[in-house]
Write a structure and sequence with these properties.
The protein has 66 residues and is mainly beta. 6% of the residues lie in helices and 20% in strands. The protein is built from 1 helix and 4 strands.
Length: 66
């Protein structure tokens, strides 16, 4: 991941400082699939489960699902 590191978050809005402090931001080049129960009031995923990488989809095609 080191070659993909960047100084700023690729997300808008950026994550809260309490979360970002322990995170390493990288250039978004891969797309993964995550199942989750719901979005919390502070826009975080409740009970996320990693499903794997998505083939044939670029980061610019990703949209937040309700």
């Amino acid at each position: 991941m080191r070659p993909l590191e960047r100084a700023t978050s690729p997300f808008e809005p950026a994550p809260p400082t309490s979360v970002a402090r322990s995170a390493t931001s990288v250039r978004p080049t891969l797309v993964g699939e995550v199942r989750f129960r719901e979005w919390t009031e502070d826009d975080r995923l409740r009970h996320p489960v990693w499903r794997g990488l998505r083939d044939g989809m670029g980061p610019q095609e990703v949209a937040r699902e309700p």
